Amino acid sequence: MLGSTELLPDVSAREYAESQGVLLGQQFPGYRELGFERRDFGPRPEEAYVRRYRWDGTLGIGAVTQAQLYYVECGRAYVFTATARERDFRRFRPVFEEVFDALPAAD
Are 51 and 35 in contact (CB under 8 A)? Predict the structure, then answer.
């Protein structure tokens, strides 16, 4: 899933990603961050960040693990989200990483 929002021009990818982590902790029951790291975003000099986290899920599907890639360019934040049930995430993680790696080539 892709989301995008307009930002003030001086907001960095790190600042945006950190603010999203706070919101996730407030909005998702049982939220637990599993990892947060800087990630090179292809040949571009811009930085991106990836967060992995789990939460309790809704609609009886059980725990969910998600990975989000945060990227900021020209005053716009982009969030790419990959989602799987907690028990399936390890199996799909290589696919999610491959998709995240391919994103810069899409422009």
Answer: yes
Q: What is the pLDDT of residues 26-77, one digit of tens each?
A: 999 899 999 999 987 766 657 899 999 999 977 677 899 999 999 888 889 9
DSSP per-residue letters across the chain: -EEEEE--TT--HHHHHHHHHHHHHHHSTT-EEEEEEEEE-TTSS-EEEEEEEEE--STT---EEEEEEEEEETTEEEEEEEEEEHHHHHHHHHHHHHHHHHGGGG-
Q: Which fold has domain 2-106?
A: Protein Transport Mog1p; Chain A (3.40.1000)
Could you tell me the pTM of the whole model? 0.85
Domain boundaries, the chain: 2-106
